[in-house]
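Dear colleague,

Following up on Tuesday's group meeting, I ran the structure prediction for the two-component complex that the binding team flagged. I've pasted the input sequences exactly as they went in, so you can double-check that nothing got truncated or mislabelled along the way. The structure tokens for the whole assembly follow below. Feel free to forward this to whoever is handling the docking comparison.

Inputs:
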Amino acid sequence: MSELIRKNASELVELLKSGQVSSVELTKAHLDRSAAVDQDVHSYLYQNPETALAAAADIDRRRAAGEQLHELAGLPIAVKDNLTTTDAPTTSGSKILEGWIPPYDSTVVKKIRAAGLPILGKTNLDEFAMGSSTEFSAFGPSRNPWDLTRIPGGSGGGSSSVVASFQAPVAIGSDTGGSIRFPASVTGTVGNKPTYGAVSRYGLIALASSLDQVGPVSRNVLDSALIQDLIAGHDPHDSTSLPESLGSMADAARKLDVKGMRIGVIKELMGEGFQPGVMNRFKESINLLQQAGAEIVEVSCPNFEYAIAAYYLILPAEASSNLAKFDSVRFGLRVAPEGNPTIERVMAATREAGFGPEVKRRIILGTYALSSGSYEHFYGAALKVRTLIQRDFAAAFEKADVLISPTAPTTAFKIGEKLEDPLAMYLNDIATIPANLAGIPGMSIPNGLADEDGLPTGIQLLAPARADARLYQVGAALEKMHEDIWGKRMIDFAPELEVRS
Amino acid sequence: MAKDELMNYEKALEMFEVVIGLEVHVELNTKTKMFCGCRNEFGDEPNTNVCPICIALPGALPAVNRTAVESSISIGLALGCEIAPNGRFARKNYFYPDLAKNFQTSQYDEPIAFEGELTVELPSGSVHTVQIERAHMEEDAGKLTHIGGSTGRIQGAEYSLVDYNRAGVPLVEIVTKPVYGAGAEAPELAAAYVRSVREIVKGLGVSDAKMERGNVRCDANVSLRPHGQEKLGTRTETKNVNSLRSIERAVRYEIQRQAALLAKGTAIIQETRHWHEDKGATSAGRPKSDADDYRYFPEPDLVPVQPSKELIESLRAKLPEKPADRRKRVQAEWGFADLEFRDVVNADLLDQIEETVKAGAKPQAARKWWTGELARIANSENMDVTELEISGAHVAELAQLVDAGKLNDRLAREVLTYVLAGEGSPAEIVAARGLEVVSDDGALIAAIDAALAKQPDVLDAIREGRMQAAGAVIGAVMQAMKGSADAGRVRELLIQKANA
């Protein structure tokens, strides 16, 4: 394996700037890596080496001409396949969109292109980001580079596995209930779900509009900070995007200092249901933070126990409406029904054939939750829980600057293990969902390997809305402590993948 | 279409109390659509004013048109409404191919304006105050054209064409509370109310307010109940009635139809009905129940509209004169008698006459043209006089040509038909067609002499004071000149000749 592709993005950027490596070389190295490993890992749904190399060559030419370039120019990146791209199909992991090439770029992709980052490809996801394992992708699951029989997390298992298998230095994900953080946790990578509204959702194929947020995926905290700084900012095309800047995440990630910070441990997110190896590593990190001068406090969020129930009403409700547009009329799949092809019958046949089981499950749930007679009991009640969870956070942030918990109760499970048990699958997100319900930022960073299975665990950091910088500050500091103890990055413990062809 | 049994109108009113409710959709004339930057333009090539947002491509998001919000607030204020400090949008979910998202972004429990009233004067002179429940913002749907099938409806069509140019055009829907107590005048009140709303939105400049283009559309709810009964009867909703006259006719029809059914003990079906102007009747649409489940929920892609007090007050300060005040003012300015003025109002001709007067016509001349010849033409074409393709400036020019003696009445009427046919302004038509009155005395004297040659006794008769004898000669001259003579001048010349 080329040593180049193992490097952190922050180092690669320096090599590009100093001319020690060209963007074409770097992009080529990553494309070669994909050719060698992606038939096993299956991170990508689509790659076009030509367009990636053309973008890289363009940056090399402009650099040679002495143009002032963005600091990340030339750094290749992978993009989750639920963000629209004009030069690549955008499927959101669904048959109903197979082959659809959008006529417009999402705002995030526009920013990526404007800064001159070659796009290596579109990464796999559970269909419409509904799932925790990528097993619900209509195009087959991605696999965990640590153990190819295991899931890489979901929905963003394509983006987590793509950086964990060194096919890309950084990637873009989206997180509705943990789709950036859970995959990061089980693949030994970093991912941040920014404050709701920090990054434009324009061109993100919506799952649940009030919960969705786009964010970075990488192998270390500083790299995620660099990407968040690139993609964040107000967008007039997204009414829910924040008007103000949240400051530089990269600056925060470079502080490496937690002295005097109050770090709250969420009582309800530990203990029962959490794998011992996950808890052991978590407790060690609490000690590390304390030794580094942080003040550890315990906080209680009593309403978190209702979070999954509320989430699985709000999300399907919004999704049932967001997915109504997939009706065969203007784009995507169109299936002729048996018999007379009336509009209703064409719509029904297309949706029947085009949507997978989890999508149908949630559309039915959401339609029911919004129906008159059920609205108050289900959707209305869920909104009340959402408010209570926001209050839990508000109270907790009175006592603490940053909250911590394990990102997920377990390490990566086996492919197929929870496929027939939706409730077990939903429970993976128990720790990550509250942040989406409250709109606050949440980060997962590697937290050592579990004793019992040697697989990566993750620690989740949470901060008040707009205080993403605190996550980068604490995350990078803790990451440094881990590297000092373990002697190398967590990702460097991952086994070598077999190289094909 | 099955023929409905109708009860005699007077008898229906003896038996039942009429309750109406009106929903008026006003299409705003903003430059761009409600939630995207596409042009809001009537009549463009189909599917040219579209973008990822208004055809609901995956990933696209709405952003609220600020001007549309301000227009909506202005409408609310002009209707005396409260303005919501926190107006939320909601999604109304239903599958229909003219609705790209398969939900309509509308407002549900938090409309931008609520609790207003509008005072309406009827042709009889009676005055009613209509209570406004709410005015809310929403987006229009695309336009469907169903091809094949006999009804022009989606059922039975071979295929349907969709034009999304109209999808996302901003609408304000104004909903009244139930209106009681209009009695036999309920149809007139319905039309007068819509007329007032039109005047308001036109005066505000927020809508082109052309009913024939669907800028203002009315759904009329009608129900009957026995006098003295408190519980409201079952209502029908007659959709998209596209002229003031149709509103009046449709409400009257529904009263007579429902009365006939109720008198027989047949229950009214709660349904939408379609008005057929040609047949003068309504027909059943789709059943409608209060339990229609649109699964409304707050639109998560939009933040609530929170107009500041300053904005509301600045819009309030810019409100134009109220319709009732305007009427008082123009009646005084024009010097119309009450009856004359009422005719003008009832014919919905205030704007036209104001425009005509502004263009230089005398008020009485403007009134006579609009309520006379133009109204007659419209009536014979089965149109509303306001729908005629003629501007106030043209009418003023015509009146001025008559005043200057260049056209007589007959010629002016002829010129008018050419204006309506789109041939140009009256002056242009007069020039192009050579229609000017013959004012050359020589030609007239020659024609008079020719007529007198056949009726030599006439001059003596005139000298003896029997003026009616002149008529035969004047008629003959007019006939000889094919109408292009000024009859007054012919008469003068004839008298001069007799007295010479």
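Chain B has a mean pLDDT of 90.

Cheers,
M.
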